[in-house]
Amino acid sequence: MTTSLPWLDADDPFPPTDLTWDHDSPAPGLLAAGATLEVWRLKAAYANGIFPWFSQGQPILWWSPDPRMVLHVDEFRLHRSLRKTIKRFRTLPSCEVRIDSDFSAVINACSSAPRHAQNGTWIVPAMIEAYEQLHDAGVAHSVETWVDGVLVGGLYCIGIGRAVFGESMFSHASDASKVALAALVSLCRAQGVRMIDCQQNTGHLASLGAREISREVFLRQVQEARMLDALEWNFKPVYWDQLLLSLPSE
């Protein structure tokens, strides 16, 4: 049964996540509306398994789906074609992975990337501004694929302790976003991160090894991971070796 949606004023805490709208509602996983996108609010949201998602002209909407789509880094599907791409990529001086080199360019590219079965984008100007502030605060990060000095793909994510929350990807060249995701997976594997939050189920994410887990399990793992020391957000070429040696081709 759908209940009324809580409206949050600027300083209101989030409701418990078990009060989200259920699967019989028009918007399963919707928790609340309102509040702000200030840094402290966004950090509190992610630390409790909540994220904002809304379109231009809508109020801020806060979500916590059950089940939750996650990518366990040891289950990443390194398809043969991507393995071949990475092997070539890592040997070419013109190709490199950068971390936080141009966060603004990445999030703006993600905002204009085509979305299957969606009209427009949820990465509206207010979200871009908010996440750029999160980046300045050391919480939001970009993983970038560069070729010949040009940014051709990437993703941005949130990191709190060793809890990592994926947000969006873009690609201007074949496999460029997958290379960035593989780089994030290898960075996480090297530093003891068990999973990357993917928020919602899509066929593309499932093809790369992501799967659904219950919100209860997800929140428990987030609570454990966010209390650990923060990741070192830099990419080392040895991470490619560890990824290629440890994951079989599929």
Q: What's the average pLDDT?
A: 94
Please state roughly what percent of the residues sit in beta strands, choosing from under 5%, 5-15%, 15-25%, 25-35%, 35-45% or over 45%: 15-25%
Largest sheet: 7 strands, mixed
Strand order of the largest sheet: 6-7-8-9-10-5-11
**Tally of DSSP helical segments:** 8
Helix content: 25-40%
Judged by helices, strands and strand pairing, the structural class is alpha+beta
The stretches of 5 or more residues where confidence is low (pLDDT under 50) are none
Nutshell version of this structure?
The chain is α+β, with helices and mostly antiparallel strands. The protein is built from eight helices and eleven strands.
If you had to describe this structure to a student in words, what would you say it looks like?
- The chain has helices spanning 39-47, 80-91, 103-112, 125-136, 176-190, 203-207, 215-226, 238-246; strands at 7-8, 30-34, 51-52, 61-63, 68-72, 95-99, 140-147, 150-160, 163-171, 195-199, 211-213.
- The chain is of the alpha+beta class.
- Helix 3 runs antiparallel to helix 4 and helix 5 (176-190) crosses helix 8.
- The protein is globular.
- The termini are far apart.
Summary keywords:
7-stranded mixed sheet; 8 helices; single chain; alpha+beta; 250 residues; 4-stranded mixed sheet; 11 strands
Topology, element by element:
Blueprint (H helix, E strand, L loop, with lengths): L6 E2 L21 E5 L4 H9 L3 E2 L8 E3 L4 E5 L7 H12 L3 E5 L3 H10 L12 H12 L3 E8 L2 E11 L2 E9 L4 H15 L4 E5 L3 H5 L3 E3 L1 H12 L11 H9 L4
Parallel strand pairs: 1-2, 9-10
Antiparallel strand pairs: 2-4, 3-4, 5-10, 5-11, 6-7, 7-8, 8-9
Helix pairs in contact: 3-4, 5-8
